[in-house]
Amino acid sequence: MNPYSIILLTTALINIILAVYSLRYNKTLLTLTYSIMLFGISLYSFGYAMELQAGNLGEIMFWLNIQYIAIPFLPTIFFILAVQYTGRVKLFKPWLIVLLFLFSLTTLVFHFTNFNDLYYKELKLTHFQSIPLAAFVKGTWYWIHQGVSNILLLFSIILFLVMVIQSRGLNRIRASIMLFSSVVPWIFYIIYLSGNSPHNLDLLPFSFSIVGILSTLGIFRYRLLDLMPVALEHVFDSLTDGLVIMDTRKRLISHNSAASEIIPELSVSMKGKDVNQVLSIFPVLANPADGIESDVEITRDGILQYYHLRVVAVNSDQDRLFGWAIIFTNITGRKQKENKLLETERNLTELNASKDKFLAIIAHDLRNSFHLMINMSDMILNNIENNNKEGALRKSKIMYDNSISTYNLLQNLLEWAMIQQKGVHFRPQPLQVKQLLEEELRNLHSLYEQKELSVRNSLDSPLVITGDEDMLKTVFRNLISNAIKYSYRGGEIFITGTASEDLVTIEITDQGTGMTREEQEKLFRIDSYLSRKGTASENGSGLGLKLCKEFINLHGGEIWVTSWPGKGSTFGFTVPAASHQSPQLPL
After folding, report:
1. Which domains does the chain have, with CATH numbers?
2. How confident is residue 518, by pLDDT bands cut at 50, 70 and 90?
3. d(CA 112, CA 133)
4. Residue range 477-507, pLDDT digits in tens
5. pTM of the model
6. Could you read off the pLDDT of 76-90 as tens digits, one per residue?
């Protein structure tokens, strides 16, 4: 056996031992890639050793085919190893990896088939020191494969070089071993491709002996495999949590990019310097200790951010305190949700309190109303017993008016309660506005006739809306009743309507008592109560307008008031036109 084959067989044996050891030492995706690469190198070296022992062209081609089981894939595998080892995970694009393996597979097929002489244009036998060698003229695909392989190798070398520059201490030594393990074979590879190899010997398999020596040194002397599960410095820097490490004297040891974004005052130049002043914005760090946790607020560029701060003790191998790691986890999203929930809870509490207060007032009004009816009934009985017909009629009129007012209050209260309990059913349909209005005016005729009021209805017949008939009747009843209640005797009430492309606007205007700005702001709010006597001392509950607002909201419309003290008020609302559906309609 010639000495060249002995060198190559020894190289193959060393690398296959390292491959098996790597898999047993640390079973991770990265060590798997590393072991596959070593297995490929071993197969390449073994095949070339046997090729140099071959006696004819047929045997040479057989062993060349064995080598080509690994050759097309080694550049791709080495590129993947470099990306994994240096922590450049962003380069791991699935489509790129698939494309590279398809390219390697295509090279393998072209080597075995030599389709249209794409890989070998000519193949013949030569001799070097009585050793038969294969001499061939390279084809087009051969050079394409070599070009892609060189690009991948060059890119891998650059990744390792950058890692060497950015690393420190033991990490730099490990990165340097990986760099030399890639540079040496690449130099041998370039020499062979340039045609400067002695007697056309393939020098690349011989370079693997150097790779084996460097790998052995790295694994057993510098614990090369300890680094392989993660590229520590790059993973450290790519953490989304901010991380600051300082020693027991509060000197900065290291920090990642996320920490720099949280605390811009941190910089590379501060390493080894006291960071007590920089971290003084966090009082909890005045006396750092293992297990300290706190939620902190930081405002940057006018934006408030919330972070959960946690202190972890960093101990040496001898369990002696080395310093502390301060971890900043962004909890802004969680805090905002918590604050929103707290605000919602606070609003619900206030709303429930307002409803309780409102219902208590309603109950008080109902009680007074029933007391009045009881007293009036008693007085009427006494007047009848004493033949006081005039007194009985007067008391009956008071009792009648109070009954009407109480009935309206109870009807509004029932409808409002059904809305709160989601017991009301919304049934939108095309409706003639004028028809609805005239029906309610007939029902209220006696009320405005008693006050000698004129109601001027200028609604046009073609006004057609999409709405719930019962709800809109309630809205008309309440708004017109209010206009009657607060109008002076002999006054006028105006009802107008206009239509746009998708909305119909209705306005009801009186010439009555009007309201102040403060009173207007309380009308539609459940957390406020406004009840005023009418011009004829009619009672009011303050509930009717709130009910109107609920019903108009269900239609997707708006309700408003414009008023001037002593001059009257205008209540307006919008509802969808018949050709449009409100976006808020329940299904």
Report:
1. 3-233 (1.20.1070.10), 239-330 (3.30.450.20), 337-423 (1.10.287), 425-587 (3.30.565.10)
2. confident
3. 19
4. 889 988 988 899 899 999 999 988 889 999 9
5. 0.45
6. 998 988 888 877 767
